[in-house]
């Protein structure tokens, strides 16, 4: 058997990858976070599959389900919202599987920040304006941030910052980024990206906190702050430039 850590995407059921959907349809056990993974995806599971909502389970209970499936010889589709590579808590699960000698694979998915950018109809990297994207969060009730990864430090770069798990603390986000980005810096908040109840908020940095509170956004949202969000004057990319020598190696 194999445990498949599958990125279920940001919310819309049809944003799971073809590979992820194929594995889900063939797995006799499916573990999913009921609060984050769209219930429509569960319809892809084979008839009679064991479905386990992990929303209220701790790591040892989740691991026990994986071990049980292994003992029974069943493949497991372990659905995680977004993409497993960021803020997914797969590391501690994979560590326990390694220790037990249980095989697993990781299937990437559409991350929340990509769905948010799509909703905004924005490329996050713009030639001559910004070529760096920082994915981060803030320390609050969850795990503390490592030294040097606080917003005040990251903000000095001026790069586009994408914050996960921070909508509840938008006042703090604004206060820490204002000195580096300025009150007029383009800012956006996208909640429930790709879902029918998607919420998109745009405005300068000094106005976004009020919009977030008025809209009642407290979870399942990403905050984006950076000049590329409002870029209108920029040079065309070298990739499709008319004068580019497309026969030159490495160009």
From TrEMBL:
<dbReference type="InterPro" id="IPR050161">
    <property type="entry name" value="Siro_Cobalamin_biosynth"/>
</dbReference>
<comment type="similarity">
    <text>Belongs to the precorrin methyltransferase family.</text>
</comment>
<dbReference type="InterPro" id="IPR006362">
    <property type="entry name" value="Cbl_synth_CobM/CibF"/>
</dbReference>
<keyword id="KW-0949">S-adenosyl-L-methionine</keyword>
<keyword id="KW-0808">Transferase</keyword>
<dbReference type="GO" id="GO:0046026">
    <property type="term" value="F:precorrin-4 C11-methyltransferase activity"/>
</dbReference>
<feature type="domain" description="Tetrapyrrole methylase">
    <location>
        <begin position="2"/>
        <end position="208"/>
    </location>
</feature>
<keyword id="KW-0489">Methyltransferase</keyword>
<dbReference type="InterPro" id="IPR000878">
    <property type="entry name" value="4pyrrol_Mease"/>
</dbReference>
<dbReference type="InterPro" id="IPR014777">
    <property type="entry name" value="4pyrrole_Mease_sub1"/>
</dbReference>
<protein>
    <submittedName>
        <fullName>Precorrin-4 C(11)-methyltransferase</fullName>
    </submittedName>
</protein>
<keyword id="KW-0169">Cobalamin biosynthesis</keyword>
<dbReference type="InterPro" id="IPR035996">
    <property type="entry name" value="4pyrrol_Methylase_sf"/>
</dbReference>
<dbReference type="GO" id="GO:0009236">
    <property type="term" value="P:cobalamin biosynthetic process"/>
</dbReference>
<dbReference type="Pfam" id="PF00590">
    <property type="entry name" value="TP_methylase"/>
</dbReference>
<comment type="pathway">
    <text>Cofactor biosynthesis; adenosylcobalamin biosynthesis.</text>
</comment>
<dbReference type="GO" id="GO:0032259">
    <property type="term" value="P:methylation"/>
</dbReference>
<dbReference type="InterPro" id="IPR003043">
    <property type="entry name" value="Uropor_MeTrfase_CS"/>
</dbReference>
<dbReference type="InterPro" id="IPR014776">
    <property type="entry name" value="4pyrrole_Mease_sub2"/>
</dbReference>
């Amino acid at each position: 058997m194999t445990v498949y850590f599958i990125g279920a995407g940001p919310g819309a059921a049809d944003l799971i990858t073809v590979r992820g959907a194929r594995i889900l349809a063939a797995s006799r056990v499916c573990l999913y976070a009921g609060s984050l993974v769209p219930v429509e995806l569960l319809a892809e599971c084979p008839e009679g599959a064991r479905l386990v909502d992990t929303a209220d389970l701790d790591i040892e209970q989740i691991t026990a389900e994986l071990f049980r499936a292994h003992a029974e010889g069943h493949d497991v589709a372990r659905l995680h919202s977004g993409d497993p590579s960021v803020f997914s808590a797969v590391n501690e699960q994979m560590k326990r599987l390694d220790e037990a000698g249980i095989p697993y694979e990781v299937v990437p998915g559409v991350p929340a920040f990509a769905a948010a950018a799509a909703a905004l109809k924005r490329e996050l990297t713009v030639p001559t304006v910004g070529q760096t994207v920082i994915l981060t969060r803030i320390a609050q009730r969850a795990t503390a941030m490592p030294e040097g990864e606080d917003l005040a430090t990251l903000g000095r770069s001026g790069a586009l910052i994408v914050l996960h798990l921070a909508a509840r603390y938008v006042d703090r986000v604004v206060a820490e980024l204002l000195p580096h980005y300025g009150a007029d810096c383009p800012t956006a908040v996208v909640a429930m990206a790709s879902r029918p109840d998607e919420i998109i908020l745009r405005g300068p940095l000094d106005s976004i906190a009020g919009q977030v509170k008025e809209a009642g956004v407290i979870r399942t949202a990403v905050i984006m702050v950076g000049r590329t969000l409002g870029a209108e004057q920029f040079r065309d990319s070298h990739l499709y430039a008319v004068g580019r020598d497309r026969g030159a190696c490495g160009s």
